[in-house]
Write a structure and sequence with these properties.
Blueprint (H helix, E strand, L loop, with lengths): L1 H23 E4 L3 E7 L2 E6 L2 E4 L5 E3 L3 E2 L2 E12 L5 E12 L2 H6 L4 H17 L4 H6 L1 H16 L4 E12 L2 H74 L3 H10 L1 H5 L12 H12 L47 H8 L1 H18 L5 H23 L4
Antiparallel strand pairs: 1-4, 2-3, 2-5, 2-6, 7-8, 8-9
Helix pairs in contact: 3-5, 7-9, 9-11
């Protein structure tokens, strides 16, 4: 019996000693702190590690975290300067620097910081319009951090950072902003398109201008070269004529070659036969071995006697074929032609002398050429007769 009582007493003593040890020793983790009250009055703050207190005399308060903490506050309704209600979500970073002040200066420092943040948001955002609010987040963060750090300093709390997480304008404002943004982008697109079209037209005009300039330069150079070539050709022909001493028969042949061009034009109702035709025909007839009497007859191109329609006389210097009173063409000579005929014998005599000299010098190699000339003269006579027959009646 005594043994049992002794065993019970021993167990009780051990339990009491264990409780005493537990109540006496307090282990505080790193970056934590605990406040100690003795008889209801603050005595000290336990540091991290092993600490000893007096059991049943000292009361240990809950742990206080000394690490930096993050608190997110949901949307706070704030009215901007332009009377728009926006919801602002904030994120607060703070750290307890004085466990005693955090425990005894404020009941709930987290709730206090939340309310202080909402109050400062209304004060700061109330002085800005919506556009400034959306574009001035850094300014708002700095203002909030300065005010909260100053106000929470006496609570043993240091606000390290304040961030605006989200700003939610009303849905109607969001729709209006989207429309504005869309209109602005469309405006920029239209401006860029107009600038592109303008630049394209400018470049096209510059290219056409350069092309026209180059084309004009090319035409100018071509005309210059063509004119120089014609000038050289004329000079060469002129020098060849003077060098070979061309006589009147060659010139008469070249003159007769232009007569077919007079009858080729369409719609000719009035055709003038130059008086030089008689002289040219007479010169050619001399080259062909004809008589040198100074008379050259123009072949008949139609029916009738002398002076009739379709007949040109060698003595006429210039003839026209207008309709007379009875509708038949007649030949008329003007005063200039008469004066030319008066001076013709002397010129014809000189030309005949030159033609005789040329015929004697070139008789050996001109037979074939004379035959060809006869054919061409015959063709010219036919064309002249045809032109007279088709003339006005």
């Amino acid at each position: 019996m005594d043994a049992i009582v002794g065993l019970v007493i021993a167990v009780i003593v051990v339990v009491l000693m264990f409780i005493f040890v537990v109540k006496t020793v307090r282990i505080v983790p790193q970056a934590r702190a605990r406040n100690i009250e003795r008889f209801g009055r603050y005595r000290k703050t336990l540091e991290p590690g092993m600490n000893f207190i007096i059991p049943f005399v000292d009361r240990v308060k809950p742990l206080i975290d000394l690490r930096e903490q993050v608190v997110a506050f949901k949307g706070q309704p704030v009215i901007t300067e332009d009377n728009l209600v926006v919801l602002i979500d904030t994120v607060l970073f703070f750290q307890v620097t004085d466990p005693r002040a955090a425990d005894y200066e404020i009941v709930d420092y987290i709730q206090a910081i939340e309310q202080l943040t909402a109050t400062m948001l209304r004060s700061v955002i109330g002085s800005m319009d919506l556009e400034q609010t959306l574009t001035s987040r850094d300014r708002i963060n700095n203002m909030l951090r300065g005010v909260l750090d100053e106000a929470s300093g006496k609570w043993g709390i240091r606000v390290t950072r304040v961030e605006i997480k989200a700003i939610d304008p009303p849905k109607s404002v969001v729709d209006a902003m989207e429309k504005q943004m869309r209109a602005e982008r469309e405006k920029r697109a239209a401006i860029l398109t107009a600038e592109g079209v303008r630049q394209s037209k400018i470049l096209t005009a510059e290219g056409e201008k350069q092309s026209n300039i180059l084309r004009a330069e090319g035409d100018k150079q071509s005309q210059i070269l063509r004119s120089e070539g014609q000038a050289q050709a004329i000079g060469t022909v002129f020098q060849a004529v003077h060098h070979h001493d061309a006589d009147s028969k060659v010139l008469a042949y070249q003159y007769l070659q232009t007569l077919p061009q007079l009858a080729q034009a369409e719609g000719n109702t009035f055709w003038v036969i130059p008086s030089e035709v008689t002289t040219a025909l007479k010169t050619l007839s001399t080259a062909f071995g004809g008589d040198n009497t100074g008379q050259a007859a123009v072949p008949q191109a139609g029916q009738g006697g002398p002076g009739g329609p379709g007949q040109v006389t060698g003595g006429a210097a210039s003839a026209a074929l207008p309709g007379d009173a009875d509708g038949r063409p007649s030949l008329a000579a003007d005063g200039d032609t008469a004066r030319a005929r008066a001076a013709a014998p002397e010129k014809e005599a000189a030309k005949e002398a030159a033609a005789d000299e040329l015929a004697a010098r070139e008789a050996a190699h001109t037979r074939d050429e004379l035959a060809q000339v006869e054919q061409e003269v015959a063709a010219v006579e036919r064309q002249v007769a045809e032109a007279e027959r088709l003339g006005p009646r």
